[in-house]
Amino acid sequence: MARVVALDVLDIRFPTSRELDGSDAMNPDPDYSAAYVTLRTDEGPDGYGLAFTIGRGNDVQAAAIRALAPHVVGRPVPEDAAALAALSSELIGDSQLRWLGPEKGVVHMAIGAVVNAAWDLASRRAGLPLWRFLAGMTPEEIVGLVDFRYLSDALTPDEALSILRKAEPTRAGRIAQLTADGFPAYTTSPGWLGYSDEKLARLAKQALAEGFDMIKLKVGGDLDDDVRRMKLAREVVGAGVRVAVDANQRWDTDVAIRWMRELAPYAPYWIEEPTSPDDVLAHRAIADALAPIKVATGEHVQNRVVFKQLLQAGAVDVVQIDACRVAGVNENIAILLLAAKFGVPVCPHAGGVGLCELVRHLSFFDYAAVSASLDGRVIEWVDHLHEHFTDPASVVGGRYLAPTQPGFSAQLREETLSQYVYPDGPVWTEVVA
Description:
- With 433 residues, the protein is an alpha/beta fold.
- It has helices at residues 58-66, 69-72, 81-92, 95-98, 105-126, 130-135, 139-144, 157-167, 171-181, 197-209, 223-237, 253-263, 280-290, 304-312, 329-342, 355-370, 414-420, 426-432, and strands spanning 4-13, 33-41, 47-53, 183-187, 214-218, 242-246, 268-272, 294-297, 318-319, 379-381, 395-396, 399-400.
- The strands form three sheets. The chain has a five-stranded parallel sheet with strand order 5-6-7-8-9. A four-stranded mixed sheet has the order 10-4-12-11, covered by helices on one side. Strands 1-2-3 form a three-stranded antiparallel sheet.
- Helix 11 links the parallel strand 5 and strand 6.
- The model has no long low-confidence stretch (mean pLDDT 96).
């Protein structure tokens, strides 16, 4: 029986702040980073996962992942749904580490990195990309992956089973469709807050030429600047292209409403993270005041419980899961099922380091086996850092291509690990010198 013999963690950072890639009103100088985990086995292959951060604090995230090693090293390699559910439950159930959350923050993200690495390992051993590995499970196996504690007032196991069984007879057709046609994407690449108007206009035109019918702009720094940039974007892309905006939690409730009313003449498709990701009632107030502008959130929502409340309160029109914020694949399946129960589309957060690579698997699985719908669904695309992965995400004609390599697509190239490891990699020592 194959066993996990080591859990290795590296602090990998990319100096994206130099070109202001990823800049927004709340995060003006991000260095996109990954606390990168490898589950080493005695028989091979190994499994790979990561927690995404933006620079300082990545060492803290890496330390939290290392603290989970006693739960993983020495155990049999998980290969099926039951073993993956057991691993997730054990990691979340460590009472002394759970105290630091509970079920949120650095430790919860660390659990997500390890759980995702275990899923990468299991799907590699199965010879399947993660989305196909998941979509091949029975409804009963998928329900068994979910922790329904704290959810049963909104979603019971029987209701989840009903959702999955309804989609099961037509799964094969949707898998074939995804393989042939891919999944709709939108791009944030034109919209970083630190970009000049000229760069915004040039990249927006490029997005149209590449087949995108939706772009996103960062907002929230200065109202006059935002009005000017939104007007420019609308002039460039025309009336038929959706333009979403993202405030990255910058505003109080009344500020969000007032600010968005100034942008309303330019038809924003959604306002993303208008306020604190924990404030369910504020999201509801903003949604009520701004309709028909949609309210989207999720990349910083800390667990399935807050997602449940957002959906129960009618406070969110678009659910934005993140592959590396909650406790991995299992908890994201819970969120996908909640969104399906409430009829709210899931449009994942991506960009960052590896988020496009990972989250595409979750959306492909969602369409194949859970929601069975593409209505209102798109995956974010940010065109940088993909070259560092052994199985990079690819978008052609405004659509994500289906992953075909076995695993969860989280493995970084060896040369990337040696170049960008912090603080001793050449990219960082040359800066210091």
